[in-house]
Design brief:
The protein is 36% helix and 13% strand. By secondary structure, it is of the alpha/beta class.
Amino acid sequence: MTRIAIDTRWDGIAGIQRYSREVLPRLRTPWVSLGFDGDHLAPLDTLRGVPDVDLVYSPGYNAFIRAKRQLLTLHDLIQLESAWPARAKFLAYYRFVVRPVVRRTGIVLTVSETSKRAVEEWLGDDSVRVVNAGIGCSEAFRADIAPAEAPDPYVIYVGNLRFHKNLVTVLDALARVPDARLRALLPGGEHDDARRLFAERGIAERVDLLPRLDDEALAREYRGAAATVMPSTLEGFGLPALESVMTGTPVLYWRGCAAVAETADGRGTALDDARDVEAWAAAIRSSLASPARVAPPTTGYDWDATARIIDATLAETAAAGGR
C-alpha cells in the first residue's frame, strides 16, 4: 500500500487555506497528517525531516527539500512579481527549493488554465506535467439566497491589502463617489492598516469592515451588493469573482488580470486600466445607479470534481515513487 502524508497546516477562511479546508475532507485516497505544527511558511520549515512515506502532499507551495517526492499545488506565481526587496527571497525560494522539488516529482497541481500556463513557462521543463485540478465553490453561493440587509446600496470587496490586490485604487475611486458605500472583508490583522487608508481618503464613515463570516453569511453579502470590486493586477484564480457571480452579482475587474477575466467571463464590467481611478469611480457609480444581475455559471466549479482530480494525481504520483 502506498503511504501518503499531507501537510494539514493550511487552514483558514481564504485563499489556499480555504482550498485546503474544502479539498482535504473530500479526498478518498488514504492519507495521514504530516504531523507538523508551527509556521509552515517559516524559512527553516523547508529543511525539516519528513516521514518515510511514498509521497508528501501540500495544498500550497511550501516544499520540503528532504522529501523523496512531494506533490505541490502552485495556485499562482504572484510572489515572483512582488516588489523589491521582498521579491528577492521569493525568487531564491522558488528557484532553489520549489523548482527542484517539482522537477524531482515530475508533476505539479494548479487551479486554473491561466496559472497552468504561467507555471509551465516558469518551469521551462516539458518533462514535468502541470495538472489543472480546478477549484470549486460552496453550495452556499447561489442566486436564490436572500440578500444581506443594508440601509444603502453598496459594493463589496473580499481580499486583503497586498499590493497586487490593488485595493487602494478602489478606495481612491470611492472618494470620488460621495454616495458610495463599501463593505470589505479583510483579514483581522489588517483592519488597523485598512482604517488608516480609509481615514486618509476621508471615506471611513462609508466603509464597513465585515467580521469573519461563514459561507452563508458571505453569500448574502455578495447577493446584497450592487457589484463586487476586484481590481487585482494578478491572480491565480480569483475566488471572490466566482463566488460573486454564483450569487448573480456582477464583478468590476481589470481585463488584463487573466485569471479573474477567465472566471468572471464577462459577467460584469471589465476595465481597461487597473489603476485608472476615474474609470473605477465611473464603474462604481454606474453599478450603484443601475444594479444588474448576471447569470451564474452552470458547470465547471465543483469541489468534488477538484478532489477527484487530486485523488487521481496522488495515486499516480505515489505509485510512481514506489516503483
